[in-house]
Amino acid sequence: MTMITPSTRAKRELASIIPGSRGDALAELSAIMHTAGSLRISGKSGEACFGTDNPGMPKLIKALSLTLLLPAPKVHKGKHTEVIFEDGIMLLTRLGILSENGGNLSSIDGILPDLIKRDSSKKCYLRGAFLGGGYLSLGKNNHMEFAFSGEVLRDDVGALLDEVTRGVGRGMRGDKHTLYLKSKEKISDVLVYMGATKAALSVQEEMINSYMGKRAAAAQNCDVANIDRAVEAAVRQIDDIRYIDMRIGLETLDDKLATTAHFRASAPEMSMGELAEAMGVSKSCVSHRLAKLTKIAEDLRKKNGDDNERK
Questions:
Q1: Domain limits at 259?
Q2: Backbone φ, ψ for residue 62 (5° rounding)
Q3: Residue 269: which pLDDT band, with cuts at 50, 70 and 90?
Q4: What's the total number of domains in the chain?
Q5: Is 134:144 a contact under the CB 8 Å cutoff?
Q6: What is the pLDDT, as a whole number, of residue 138?
Q7: Would you say residue 203 has pLDDT above 90?
Q8: What pLDDT, on the 0 to 100 scale, is given for residue 221?
Q9: Which helix (H) or strand (E) holds 180?
Q10: Is residue 219 in some structural domain?
């Protein structure tokens, strides 16, 4: 039985998401073709090709093409699946990858601003960039990477990632320009932003399981009173989290607060410092986020007349 890697799992989930507008579809298909596509010149038009091992990609690309009113691509299945657009120059020009002026073609190195005017289009562009040139590994070496053939495109996508999380690394791998993340929490934030919520949940579960192994080994030496205080504080925090979820839903929170809420609810026995270590952030960062969740819950209780509900 073939083991499904975290990268494969994330890409399959992302490939199942179909953008709902032409602008979003254009951004996603542009990113896919800009990171992993190629142009085979044959005659005047040429063919734009994309190779993949992801079984969901041909369906996604056909759906994107339909949304954009493009001729349906051909799909050739062999050792690797190849998706082929017959009028490649027309396609890549429309996707903002090529520019044609007086019959002369030139490549566009970065992202055309018109492609990413809306936040939803930015999400779709990042999703396409990961589907086309992304990689994810978890375990001893946590690593999320986006690879690009050019530095300008790498830096433009890096600017989009910088809006999602801090600490995005930039480097080289062979002849590829790369963006990378090492923190599981930051990787989880990016996966949630792109729409891979199931993959993000598996990252969070691994973080908790990894930490709990260390926690169990140290539990024998812990002061029982400290554990009790940590659990008591956590119970109150979880009460706030459940109230928020009941009233407005955790999905209405920003990604970082939602991630923190899920971590706290999953590990009530952790102290603030232990939770921070498990999430890969500072203790003050966790404290600030939990305080923010408490404030949201307090405001909701006042608004709904539930001030006396909490013990």
A1: 197-303
A2: -65, -40
A3: low
A4: 2
A5: yes
A6: 84
A7: no
A8: 52
A9: strand 176-181
A10: yes
